[in-house]
Design a protein that fits this description.
By secondary structure, this protein is of the alpha/beta class. The protein contains 13 helices and ten strands. A six-stranded mixed β-sheet has the order 6-5-7-8-9-10, with helices on both faces. A four-stranded parallel β-sheet has the order 2-1-3-4, with helices on one face.
Length: 340
């Protein structure tokens, strides 16, 4: 046993010889003294069992770190949080760090065994100390991202989503396709636009990109969601100079937060016939009430979360990390609209 007879004797208020007689049963002992010794021995046995149990089944702790850009896509982030809570194994506990969390607190929890791994939602780490911590803490990103001084990592599903959008407009006989985009730290958005353009060229179609010019810091704030006027004005500036004859007959909205404001532009301009619209990401809350409801491309955040959790647990348990970004194998899916 880890505890000595002397220590048991001290706790029970008896001599080590008495403890020996109780444990070995080789001589009679006063019943009251015997009970004290046996109770302490039982407590020590239970403690040793719990230590062994914790080593084998100990509760592990993971956290979702919401980087500033997460707030732009809060609906999708909410879906991911619920999915994480549903999928975590029984011996894992889950907490959420806001973008304002102090990186030294994360370090302290990791060093004290109160944090075993991180899931990251967002596209960029600006804090040098947090970037340093990520070299030590097992972690997996839930989206495309870029680390300081490194090549951006973009989910392959983004480029494929752009190609799906181009094929969809081609099938709907669109001959003046266009893509609506804006500047974003999400490197995946640029890949969606690139994939769309490539497939338009393969279909021998001219393609235009309408760029919604937003304030420099808008993508890092809640303003895009709380004050939709920013998107409204940016889309209006991008599209209002286009003559009716040259106006696109099909539009790929590369980010679903743009889609409702695109429809608002159609209504304001009193357009008799709307272009065919396909939106990237499939969050019903963004598309509710739009008529005709656009087709959308589901990037499957639920599947992404499952893959990310499996990979994070693998890294926490000491397994070799995947050489590629975990979500590259997620397959986007076309969700038909009311025109289909």
């Amino acid at each position: 046993m880890n505890v000595t007879m002397k220590e048991i004797a001290l706790k029970a208020g008896v001599s080590p010889a008495t403890v020996s007689r109780v444990i070995n049963g080789n001589a009679p002992v006063d019943p009251e003294k015997c009970e004290k010794v046996l109770r302490i021995v039982a407590d020590e046995t239970a403690r040793k069992h719990w230590v062994r149990h914790r080593k084998r089944y100990r509760i592990r702790h993971i956290a979702l770190l919401l980087l500033p850009e997460s707030r732009f896509d809060i609906r999708t982030v909410g879906t991911k949080i619920l999915r994480i809570a549903e999928l975590l194994p029984e011996q894992y506990e889950f907490q959420v760090y806001s973008a304002r969390v102090n990186a030294h607190r994360i370090e302290s929890q990791f060093l004290h065994g109160e944090l075993d791994g991180l899931l990251l939602s967002g596209h960029q780490v600006k804090d040098p100390f947090l970037s340093f911590l990520l070299e030590k803490i097992p972690h997996v990103w839930l989206n495309s991202f870029q680390r300081e001084g490194q090549q951006p990592v973009s989910l392959m599903g983004n480029e494929f989503a752009g190609k799906i959008a181009a094929d969809y407009l081609f099938r709907h006989r669109c001959r003046r396709p266009a893509v609506l985009s804006f500047k974003s730290r999400n490197t995946g958005l640029a890949d969606r636009v690139a994939g769309f353009k490539v497939n338009c060229i393969l279909h021998d179609l001219p393609v235009r990109e309408f760029f919604a010019e937003l304030p420099e810091d808008a993508a890092d704030s809640d303003d895009l969601l709380r004050h939709g006027g920013l998107l409204d004005a940016a889309i209006r500036r991008a599209l209002e100079e286009v003559s009716p004859k040259e106006f696109p007959d099909g539009i790929f909205s590369s980010e679903e937060a743009l889609t409702p404001w695109l429809y608002r532009f159609f209504v304001r301009e009193k357009m008799k016939k709307y272009p065919v619209v396909i939106s990237c990401n499939h969050t019903p809350g963004y598309l509710a009430g739009l008529y005709p409801r656009p087709a959308s491309i589901d990037l499957h955040p639920e599947t992404l979360v499952k893959l990310a959790i499996d990979e994070l647990i693998n890294r926490i348990e000491g397994g070799a990390p995947r050489p590629d970004n975990i979500a590259t194998i997620v397959q986007p899916e076309l969700i038909p609209g009311e025109l289909d």
